[in-house]
Amino acid sequence: MGDYKIKDIEVLTGIKAHTLRIWEKRYALLIPDRTDTQIRTYTDDELSYLLNISLLNKSGYKISKIANLSREEINELVWEIRVSTELDNSGEKLILALIHLDELLFRDTLNDLIREVGLENTFTHHLIPFLDRIGVMWLVGSISAAQEHFISNLIRQKIISEIDKLPIPDSSKPSIMLFLPEHEWHEIGLLYYQFLLRFKGLNSVYLGQSLPFESALDCIKILKPSAVITSWLTAVEDEFLVKYFQQLKVAVDNTPIYAGGAQVNMKIDLIADLVIEIKHAKDLNKLF
What we know:
alpha/beta
């Protein structure tokens, strides 16, 4: 079960801590538990309730009116909002879909965003903040591995679907090779890189998750890529990371290596002479 502090609630619901304190005092919306040091803590049920309140408030309902509604009345109003296509509520809808393992709500919300602003803006302005919010929930132990996998696979599925809609580039053009190193399975970022490259009409070859190093070398020999792109999120020893990119640098000769992900971004000083850092997905538009 979750044990959220008020700062966690602020991140997850979008309700400022100061505002939440006023609502609790003025309207008695919630009476959260407190630690021995008087720090407010909130449960999963209270998080879901506050997400619903945030949805209603963003949709024009005054907090004074919401405070007089029963939980059942709030749920009925929220249901009407959930089936709407209002983009301002997308963050709360995505979190609710995660909590309740609601594939339909997640799919419809994502489809509405992509239809209105495109996958690039959806990923940058909606999915990345959403994944950050999931990180908070993971840290406080309020979501299980199953919930995280559920959402990750839905996002992965959607990006692949969007890639599949794009034309296959001319294979005679220089190729860009994308892969994840062995034991690295977090491919959402790399898949999004693949989408951006394909959207620009570039000939990209996607080799996926956990590619053994020897297999990567074999592919480099066959493809002779004009660039190599990889990503690294899983924590590894500094020495292992440096050695990996040193060996890869030798294998690709003068071919540039582009690398992103948390481990690369945190340890770029160690490998700055071996790779070109991708800080944000939008960097690819500048690099290529």
